[in-house]
Prior knowledge:
This is Pyrimidine/purine nucleoside phosphorylase. Catalyzes the phosphorolysis of diverse nucleosides, yielding D-ribose 1-phosphate and the respective free bases. Can use uridine, adenosine, guanosine, cytidine, thymidine, inosine and xanthosine as substrates. Also catalyzes the reverse reactions. Strand 2 and strand 3 (21-28) form a beta hairpin. The protein has no helices and 11 strands. The protein has a single domain (7-102), classed as Sandwich (Jelly Rolls). It has strands spanning 7-9, 14-16, 21-28, 33-39, 42-48, 52-58, 60-64, 72-75, 79-82, 86-92, 96-102.
Amino acid sequence: MEKFENVSVTTKANVYFDGKVTSRAVTFANGSSKTLGIMLPGEYEFGTDKPELMEITAGVMDVLLPGQSEWLRVVGGESFNVPGNAKFQLKVSELTDYICSFLDE
């Protein structure tokens, strides 16, 4: 998706890993939310309370999802799901642009 209509944007950035990962929250009229962000190359571990859909709009990363032993390569135009109450690892090999949607359980 290239454009979101009729949304509210939280201007304060979420900053992680000494500024190597940043995002901003977008809230839709129906109350759902997403974050739009950028990740610089590096290795990261994230935790989530709710299930998430991670859409990679540009860039390349490898993902290790909970309970998996094989890394999954994800490139721009692809996505992956993360279950709620879980941790997942990322190896970002180039500047990566993403959209994270928080899903209902």
